[in-house]
User: Fold this.
Amino acid sequence: MGKDVEVGGHEYGAKDYQDPPPAALFDAEELTKWSFYRAIIAEFIATLLFLYITVLTVIGYKSQTDPAHSPDQCGGVGILGIAWAFGGMIFVLVYCTAGISGGHINPAVTFGLFLARKVTLPRAFMYIVAQCLGAVCGCGLVKAFQKTYYNTYGGGANELADGYSKGTGLGAEIIGTFVLVYTVFSATDPKRNARDSHVPVLAPLPIGFAVFMVHLATIPITGTGINPARSFGAAVMYGKEKAWDDQWLFWVGPMIGAAVAAFYHQYVLRAGAVKALGSFRSNA
Assistant:
């Protein structure tokens, strides 16, 4: 890692580094660029593929362990395999789309980056719309190919498990999303990237592992949302009352977790609040 050198009361890294300027709230110029719409398409396709593979994995596991069809209750991929499917797909898709759209694939990630002023409001809004539509289409493909299994085994929809309170489910979603979004900020930190040239290549790996670990912990509680588009798409295509009754958990929890992670990284770890206060005092 590069060593900090203090010169004239300021710290400079051994490698050149400068914080990128915060994104404007609204940038009319970006609406005229093809790269803006290309990024939206990339988010749509990535979320579609994410839901298609992961929901198929969930339904496949449930069908393989259904006592009515299989005497082997230890068959299928298990919770570990489901967690690997979600984490592995995020790793693959972030790697594929990071250079085009940033590889968000999750409204909570987009919301956190918007609060940190990494993306503009129009980009954040269009990303979330594209992610939700992609999730609906991904689940729609699964339902079209395996309608009987899809309806019989829950359609991959997130629901609060029996025996857990709403508060427990909400807490699981908040903390799980915090872990994910905090990892996204840390893995894509431009200061770290400037000091360690290998970090941009490896960034999708810790993000995928964060998704994997959170799924291991929270699948028994909520089925693991931490991605409002994932929960929304499955609920739309499954359409049962329980999935919609619990839907608010999978929007409120992830958005709170993302907001806390953005604040923690930007204003505590990166000392944004201290820098802002120092700038205010110097101008006073």
